[in-house]
Description:
Layout: H1 3-10, H2 14-18, E1 26-29, H3 37-45, E2 53-57, E3 75-79, H4 87-91, E4 95-97, H5 105-110, E5 118-123, E6 131-133, H6 141-147, E7 150-156, E8 163-164, E9 167-169, E10 175-179, H7 193-203, E11 211-214, H8 218-225, E12 234-235, E13 239-240, H9 242-249, E14 265-267, E15 269-270, H10 274-280, E16 286-288, H11 291-294, H12 297-300, E17 306-310, E18 314-316, E19 321-322, E20 325-326, E21 329-330, H13 337-346, E22 351-355, E23 368-369, E24 387-390, E25 393-396, H14 402-411, H15 415-429
Parallel strand pairs: 1-2, 1-5, 2-3, 3-4, 5-7, 7-10, 8-16, 11-12, 11-17, 13-15, 14-16, 17-22, 18-23, 22-24
Antiparallel strand pairs: 6-9, 18-19, 20-21, 24-25
Helix pairs in contact: 7-8, 14-15
Coenzyme A is lined by residues 215-217, 238-239, 310-314, 323-324, 326, 331-332, 335-337, 360-361, 365, 367.
Amino acid sequence: MDWRELYNTKLVSAKEAVSKIKSRDKVVIGHAISEPSTIVDAMVENKENYENVEIIHMLPMGKTEYVEPGMEKYFTHNALFVGAKTRDAVSSGRADYTPCYFHEIPKLFKKGYIPVDVALIQVTSPDEHGYCSLGVSSDYIKPAAECAKLVIAEVNEQLPRTLGNCFVHVSDIDYIVEASHPLIELKPPKITDIERAIGENCASLIEDGATLQLGIGAIPDAVLLFLKDKKDLGIHSEMISDGVVELVEAGVITNKKKSLHPGKIIVTFLMGTKRLYNFIDNNPMVELHPVDYVNNPCVIMKNNNMISINSCVQVDLTGQVASESVGITQISGVGGQVDFVRGTNMSKNGKSIMALPSTTSKGTISKIVPFLDEGAAVTTSRNDVDYIVTEYGIAKLKGKTLRDRARELINIAHPSFRLSLMEEFEKRFKTKF
Ligand code: COA
């Protein structure tokens, strides 16, 4: 059958599509901006017909009503990352978190560690061959759609058509719901003098021709501000946001010197404003691939001069990095942090950077500490860690002894905490600072 006829046979209302979801099904929802909101709203609306539908998601950016108090009977939530919208649900017991490297999530689905009954995806209208682009996410959602028993797609005519390994054919979709709505926008964060100082310190470690991975938030955006005089930078990153567009337009990011995928920006998902969404639409410079490719350390390492920049909540004096929990409170997830730290460590001339303000936002708590808070998860181990950067400078830890690491870290801690850290140093190492 021609794909156009096939398309018409699959076309249903959102209400009808979600009636195919059954109690106790495990439902994977498109990540971040790629959440098919019309279908998700209809699923929540249909809740009285469900018991224990398990929602598997990473970073929800939509309404996230299914984790609200009172929804437990209908939906359980398995967070593969914890973000602002799911923090309260996880800490109050209405949702749970599964520790996992981002690049391994497709494997968890494919091997059946986390079986996928239903995949809810957002796609563009089909092209002349019947292929729909997944737009702003290939990440775990393409693999999830490949192994789900049931695939329900929201065709959003406003979704940008991106290129790479991010297409689904109409014949691989079971039900199609048509919609037209703008994408969620992630406004650029506020950059204070502290982030600017951190950004400048990070930028001093970046040489012309380097390939960058940047996380999300004020620090990565601040780094970009200090790269305007660099030449021929490239991008191989879990995600990018608006700041990268500016550097492409300024001729700083050319991707010409990349040893893997020269000329291309390689990412697994995207989050930004309309500016980014216009830039990626049908743009052959940008390719989206599934996360088991982009974040695989063995792929990342093929980029020479790879630089990864991520952030964390605490670093202890030996270099153990906690990025996902404050004590036992899970506030985030490992995401792609360790994928990129390890891939970058294996890259020729690679440098992995952990960039953080020296204190929490009110300046009352040091992020460089003698010991991680009781119960904190170590996200990046002290064996993997390389550079730690604060607004006070750069600590190079790889290859250094415990004592030398502690000295380096105390030198970049906030001045008002240095004395107490030195006392801890002297107690621990039985040596004068
Ligand atoms: N002690 C107590 N509370 C702390 C803390 C500390 N040492 N560090 C952070 N917090 C609190 C903050 O006050 C904030 O609470 P609030 O929201 O009530 O104000 C909360 O934890 C989040 O911290 P913040 O510093 O604002 O987070 P951020 O938005 O700058 O993100 C990470 C920092 C570490 C959470 C983020 O980088 C992350 O998730 N990293 C892991 C995943 C990753 O690296 N992915 C990489 C590829 S994108």
